[in-house]
């Protein structure tokens, strides 16, 4: 990992992460807030895309780049090729001492381990088998590692397949036999192949799935842009929590996901209705979320040490969220 970080530090004007993205001259990169999103844009990220548009309306010049995994997005932030990342870089912060901090919880873990019933029926059947998760260090990997410990099994290998929608398709096509999907993927599997897949019991899991994080230097130098971005996201989360159907009109207003299939479009309202019912993090997480994360990620192995001995300030910068909550109030 250290070698990767050194490599990324030497890149100044060009992203080369699986796909080549030609950037503007370095002098022009000083103004936009560059966000590295380690995933593809799908239904599950639609509300975040709306919030980005609202932040632009508030005067924040955002430049979003979609990368193939969360760890590559995190390395881009560490190396200075991006200002803000989307993910949960707990392990990176602790083990590499990366000077980044999370500052806003975007989502909590809402996932469903699932297997093809032609091959597996329960957790014990996965002993010695390969499973597919989102990316290295992701919440999906943490859940599956925790379940392996809980059920006394050991996987043969982790296959990293970014995007819950991609993993859902891989299951339907028979390319993956065991993985973990989101609620949208669960509905698709139940609709298109009823009885073919078994959803394995997970129990009570409470932890951050995705958060916004940034270099500490960036947070200190750009408090106004960060505040506007946090406010745009919290306002969007609260609007959708109050009226999940509003996301449909917001997608049309900002012309988001223009290439979405009819199945994807049909899933937008059900997905956000369920997300609102389960609870969106309308107050941004903060210290309480960090403490829950310490409990989960120390058990799953993503964090080392005892949960009660970990310090929130070592992983989170609470200032941006505190400022936004002071302005918007709590919900």
Automatic annotation (TrEMBL):
- Can you name this protein? ABC transporter substrate-binding protein
State the compartments where it is located. Periplasm
PANTHER family xref list: ALIPHATIC SULFONATES-BINDING PROTEIN-RELATED, TAURINE-BINDING PERIPLASMIC PROTEIN
For this UniProt record, give its keywords in alphabetical order, as a comma-separated list: Signal
Coiled-coil positions: none
SsuA/THI5-like domain location is 56-245
Organism of origin is Mesorhizobium zhangyense
Give the source's domain of life in one word: Bacteria
Q: Which family does it belong to?
A: Belongs to the bacterial solute-binding protein SsuA/TauA family.
Where is this chain primarily localised? Answer: periplasm
Which Gene Ontology terms of cellular component type are present?
A: periplasmic space
């Amino acid at each position: 990992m250290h070698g990767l970080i050194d490599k990324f530090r030497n890149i100044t004007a060009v992203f080369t992460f699986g796909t080549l993205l030609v950037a503007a001259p370095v002098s022009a990169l000083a103004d936009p807030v560059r966000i590295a999103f380690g995933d593809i844009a799908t239904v599950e990220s639609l509300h975040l895309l709306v919030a980005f548009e609202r932040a632009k309306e508030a005067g924040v010049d955002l430049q979003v780049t979609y990368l193939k995994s969360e760890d590559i997005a995190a390395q881009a932030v560490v190396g200075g090729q991006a200002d803000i990342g989307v993910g949960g870089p707990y392990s990176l912060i602790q083990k590499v001492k990366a000077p980044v901090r999370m500052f806003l919880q975007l989502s909590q873990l809402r996932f469903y381990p699932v297997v093809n019933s032609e091959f597996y029926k329960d957790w014990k059947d996965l002993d010695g088998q390969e499973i597919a998760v989102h990316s290295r260090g992701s919440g999906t990997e943490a859940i599956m590692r925790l379940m392996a410990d809980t059920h006394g099994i050991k996987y043969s290998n982790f296959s990293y397949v970014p995007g819950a929608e991609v993993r859902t398709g891989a299951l339907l096509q028979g390319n993956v036999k065991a993985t973990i999907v989101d609620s949208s993927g669960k509905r698709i599997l139940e609709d298109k192949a009823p009885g073919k897949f078994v959803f394995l019991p997970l129990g009570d899991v409470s932890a951050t799935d995705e958060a916004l994080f940034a270099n500490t230097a960036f947070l200190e130098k750009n408090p106004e842009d960060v505040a506007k971005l946090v406010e745009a996201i919290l306002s969007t989360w609260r609007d959708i929590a109050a009226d999940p159907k509003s996301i449909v009109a917001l997608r049309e207003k900002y012309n988001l996901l223009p290439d979405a299939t009819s199945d994807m479009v049909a899933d937008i309202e059900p997905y956000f209705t369920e997300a609102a019912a389960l609870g969106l993090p309308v107050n941004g997480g903060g210290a309480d979320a960090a403490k829950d994360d310490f409990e989960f990620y120390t058990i799953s192995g993503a964090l080392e040490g005892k949960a009660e001995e970990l310090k929130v300030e070592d992983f989170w910068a609470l200032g941006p969220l505190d400022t936004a909550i002071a302005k918007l109030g709590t919900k």
